[in-house]
Design a protein that fits this description.
Largest sheet of chain A: 4 strands, antiparallel
Bound molecules: adenosine-5'-triphosphate, magnesium ion
Mean pLDDT of chain A: 78
Number of strands of chain C: 10
Strand order of the largest sheet of chain C: 6-7-8-3-9-10
Low-confidence stretches of chain A: 255-263
Order of helices and strands of chain A: HHEHEHEHEHHHH
Low-confidence stretches of chain C: none
Largest sheet of chain C: 6 strands, mixed
Number of domains of chain A: 2
Radius of gyration of chain C: 17 Å
Oligomer: heterotetramer
Number of helices of chain A: 9
Helix content of chain C: 25-40%
Strand content of chain C: 25-35%
Structural class of chain C: alpha/beta
Number of strands of chain A: 4
Distance between the termini of chain C: 21 Å
Shape of chain C: globular
Largest interface: A-B, 71 and 72 residues
Radius of gyration of chain A: 31 Å
Shape of chain A: rod-shaped
Distance between the termini of chain A: 26 Å
Strand order of the largest sheet of chain A: 2-3-1-4
Order of helices and strands of chain C: EEEHEEHEHHHEHEHEE
Structural class of chain A: alpha+beta
Helix content of chain A: 55-70%
Strand content of chain A: 5-15%
Amino acid sequence: MRLRQLPYLGRTALEGFRAHALMNLIAVIIIALAFVVGGGFLLLVINVEWAAEGWSEQIQVTAYLADGLSAEATQGLRSRIAGLPEVAQVRYVSKDDALKAFRGQLGPRASLLQGLTESPLPASFEIALRPMHRSADGAERLAGRLRDLQGIEEVSYGQDWVRRLQGFLEFLRLVGAVIGGGLLLSVIFIVSNTMALTVLARREETEILQLVGATRSFIALPLVFEGMIQGLLGALLSLGLLYAAYELFTTQLYLQAVAGLRPGGIRFLPWQLGAAVVGAGLLLGAIGSLLALGRAESVER
Amino acid sequence: MRLRQLPYLGRTALEGFRAHALMNLIAVIIIALAFVVGGGFLLLVINVEWAAEGWSEQIQVTAYLADGLSAEATQGLRSRIAGLPEVAQVRYVSKDDALKAFRGQLGPRASLLQGLTESPLPASFEIALRPMHRSADGAERLAGRLRDLQGIEEVSYGQDWVRRLQGFLEFLRLVGAVIGGGLLLSVIFIVSNTMALTVLARREETEILQLVGATRSFIALPLVFEGMIQGLLGALLSLGLLYAAYELFTTQLYLQAVAGLRPGGIRFLPWQLGAAVVGAGLLLGAIGSLLALGRAESVER
Amino acid sequence: MIQMYHVTKSYPGGVEALVDITLHVPRGEFVFLTGASGAGKTTLLKLLFCAEPPTRGQILLNGRNAARLRRAAIPLLRRQIGMVFQDFRLLPRRSVFENVALALEVMGLPRREIRRRASEALAWVGLEARQAQPAIRTSGGEQQRTAIARALVNEPYLLLADEPTGNLDPDISLEVMELFKRVNARGTTVLVATHNRDLVTRYPFRTVALEKGRLLA
Amino acid sequence: MIQMYHVTKSYPGGVEALVDITLHVPRGEFVFLTGASGAGKTTLLKLLFCAEPPTRGQILLNGRNAARLRRAAIPLLRRQIGMVFQDFRLLPRRSVFENVALALEVMGLPRREIRRRASEALAWVGLEARQAQPAIRTSGGEQQRTAIARALVNEPYLLLADEPTGNLDPDISLEVMELFKRVNARGTTVLVATHNRDLVTRYPFRTVALEKGRLLA
Ligand SMILES: Nc1ncnc2c1ncn2[C@@H]1O[C@H](COP(=O)(O)OP(=O)(O)OP(=O)(O)O)[C@@H](O)[C@H]1O
Ligand SMILES: Nc1ncnc2c1ncn2[C@@H]1O[C@H](COP(=O)(O)OP(=O)(O)OP(=O)(O)O)[C@@H](O)[C@H]1O
Ligand SMILES: [Mg+2]
Ligand SMILES: [Mg+2]
C-alpha cells in the first residue's frame, strides 16, 4: 500500500458505502440505537447524580453546646468550627431559638410550654458541609472532630436519615455501574458485530480483490474507513435522537411532574461526553471492521 | 405453499441457519446483547422500585389527640382509624410516652425537663399505611380524613420528607420510563434490523428461489423461521448473560456495599418477565425477517 | 406457444437491447437463437421468462399476455418453463442434488417423488457421481449441467437455454443436444441461445439471428 | 517458466482433481489445456495462480517454489500473472472500466496511467462503449471480455485463461485468440484451458490434454 493510493482507498470507502446503501443504512441505525442506549443510560446517571446532589445538600450536622457557655467562648468555638476543612457554613441557634423552633413544631399544643421560665433546650450550631464531604462518612468524620472540642456537649447529624439516603444512592451507583459496564460492553459488541455483519456480507468482493493481487491493507483500509463512516454517522444520529428525546422530556413532561425538584430541571450530556460518543463511534467502527476482517479470514467460506 | 411443504421449510430454515453459521452467530450475539441491555434496565428498575418500596414503608402518619380525651373515646377513635381503608396498623403513644421519647431525643439535656409536672406533649396515634397508599398522596388523603375526626387535634406526616422522597422516586420513574421506552424501541429496532442485515445478505439466494418458481411464502417462511431461531437463541443467551451478571453481583459486590439495604438483597427477573423476553425474541425475530423481506423487495439490487 | 409483437426492450442506462421484435414460435418447435455478444439473446429469453418486463410490445405465452400476469401468477408460470441461465444461478452452498430438487420442492411434490425425479434428471446430464457436492465446489461444466438438469426436472412445456454448452466439451455438448431433442420430441418447445456454430450447423432446426437487438430476416 | 513435478490435488470431499502431474512450460510458449468437463483444467490453473495449494508435488514459477511463498508475497505474484476466470469473478456493482482498472489500482499506479492503460485494454476486447456500465448489467460475453481485459491490463508475464471464449461468438473468439497471440509474441507465456475444438485445431500450438486428472501422453 502506498500513500498515493490513499485517495483511492478513501473514494473506495465512500463508494462502498453508497453501493451498499441499504445495508449500511441499517447498520448505521443499529449503531445509532446502541449508542442511544448507552447515551440514554449516561443521561440517566448524570441526572440522578445531579438530583442526588441536591438531596445531600440537606445533610447537616448539629452541634449542641454545653449549658452556660460564655458569649466569647461561643464565638471562639464558632470560628474554630468554621475553620474545619469539612465545614461550609455555620449557623448559631440560641436556646431561645431552639425553644421557638420547638414551639413551632408543637403547633397549637405549644401553649403547654408556657410554664417554662427558661428554655430547656440547648443552644447549637447548625453546620452545612462542603459538597465533597456531604456523605454519611463526611458527616461522621466531622461529628468526631466536633465531639473533641471543648464546650460541645453532643453532636447529631440525623444519622439514620443520612445513612439511608447514602445507602440508597450507593445502591443506585452500584447497580448503575454494573449495568452501565454491561451496557458499555454490549454497545461495543453490538457496534463491532454490526460492522462484522456488513463486512461479512462482502466476502465475495474481498475474495475478488485478493485474486487481482490486492494486499491485505489495500482490502482492509476501505472497509475500516467504511466502518468509521458507519460509526460516525451512527454516533451523530444517536446524539440527535437523544437530544430530541431530551427536548421532548423537558418541554412536555418535566413541568407537570418534576417541577420544583431542582431549579435547572434536567441536564443534557455535557459537550465532552458528546464528543466522546462521536470518538467512540469512529473508534468502534475501525475496530469492528478489523475484527470482522480477522473473523472472515479465519473461517472458510 | 402447501402444508406438506412445512417440514421442508423447517429443514430449510435449520440448514440456512447452519449454512450461514458465522453470520447467524454474530446476529445472535447482537440480539442477545440488545436483550441484555433491555433486560438489564428491567433489572435495574425492578430493584430500584423494590428498594424504594422499603423506603416508603417508613411513611407514617401521626395524629395528635385533643387533650383530656377519655380512655373510651380514645379507644373508639382508635378502632375508627383502624377501620379506614388506608390504614395498616395503629400504635397509641400516650402523653407520657411522648415525653419519654422527647427526653430520649434531648439526651443528656433531658434533665432540664424535670421541672415539668405534666407532659406538655399531646398523646398521638402513629399510623402505618397499607402498601398501596404509601405515598405523599395517600398520606395526605389519610391526613384529611383524620382531621375530620372528633378528638383529633392535628395531623402530621413529615410532609417535607415524604414529598421529597416522593419527588425523587417520581423523577426516577419518569426518567426511567422515557429511557426505558426509548430502550424498548431501540431493542426492537436493533433486533429487527439485525435480521434485516442477515436477510439482505442473502438477496442473491432469494432471487434464485424466485427464478425457479418459488412463491413468496415459500421464500419468506424459512427466513421467518430462521429469524425466530435467531431471536430465540438471542433471548436465551441474554437471559444466561444477565443471570451470570446477577450472580456475580450478588456474590461479589453485594455483601460489602449494599449490606443491610434490604434483607433479600437484589432480585432477579421473575419468571414471567423471563418468559416475556423469550417470547419477544421469537416475535421480534419473525417481525424482523418480514420487515427485512419487505425492504429487500422494495429496493433494486 | 410464443408470440412476440413489436417487442422493444431498453435498459435504464439507455441501451436498446431489443428493437421491434416480432417472432412466433409454434408449439413443439426447436429454435436456435444466435447473434454476436451483446446482440440481445439473453434479454429475449429473460422477457419470455418474465424476469424483465418489455418496454413496448406484446408477448403471449400459450395465449396468455405475459405483461398482464398478476405477480402471484409468475411463480406458477416459471414452474412450467425450464430456463438454463447463462450464469447458471445455482445456490452455491446447496448440493448439486438439492439444486435440482429445488425446482420440485417449490411445487410441493411428495418427497419420494422429488428424490426419484431429481436423480433421474442428474442421470440425464451424467452427474450422478457429483450429486452430494456443494454446487460451488464443482467444475464449470458440472455447474452448467446442474443448471440444465434443474431446468428439465419438472418437464416444462417450454425450455429456454442460454448458451447451455459454453462450458461443456464437444462430446457432452452433443449429449446435451440429444437430451434437448428427446425433450422436444416429447412435446416441449425448445429455444436455445448459442454461439456454438458446430451445433447450429449440425442440427437442421430453425435459426433466429439477432444483430444489435434486431431480428435478421 | 512453469515446472510442475508429480503434482497431486485432492479436494476435501475426496475428489482427486489432479493426479501426479509433471509438466514443463518454457517461457514464451503458448499452450492449450484440454479435457472433458471435470478433468481438472481449472484446478491446474488455480494451483499455478496460488489460489489453491497442491496436496503433493512441487510447483516452480519462474524458478520460485510456489508452495513456499510467504503469504504477503502472493499478491505480488498475482500482479504478474493474468488470470481469466471461468466464472469471470468481476465486482458486480463496479463498472466495466473500474473492474479493469482495479488490477492497476492495487499496484498503486498514478491515476492518469491507470486511465490510459485500462482504456487501452478495453479497446483490445471491443468494450469501449460499455465501460461505464456496472458489470452485472452487461451481457455474458461482455463480462467475459471484461475479465480478459483485466487479466491483460498489467502486462503479465504469464496469462492463465480458463475457457475464455465460452460465452463469445466465433468472430470475437478469434479476435481474442489473436489478442492472446500478440501478447504471447511480446513474451508472455500463455496457457489457455478450452473446450473449443475450432480454436485448438486452427492454431498450431502445443496441446496438453487432461483426463480425469491425469495427463494424456
Ligand atoms: N472446491 C472443490 N471441492 C471439491 N471438489 C472440487 C472442487 N473444485 C472442483 N472439484 C472437483 O474436481 C474435479 C475437477 O474440477 P475442475 O474445475 O478442475 O474441472 P475442469 O476441468 O475445469 O472442468 P470444466 O471443464 O467443467 O470446468 C471436478 O470433478 C470437480 O467436481
Ligand atoms: N441490466 C442491464 N442494464 C443495462 N444494460 C443491459 C443490461 N443487461 C444487458 N444489457 C445490455 O443489453 C445488451 C444485450 O444484452 P444481452 O445480455 O441480451 O446480450 P446477449 O446477446 O445475451 O450477449 P452474450 O452473448 O454476450 O451473452 C448488451 O449490450 C448489454 O450490455
Ligand atoms: Mg447472453
Ligand atoms: Mg473449469
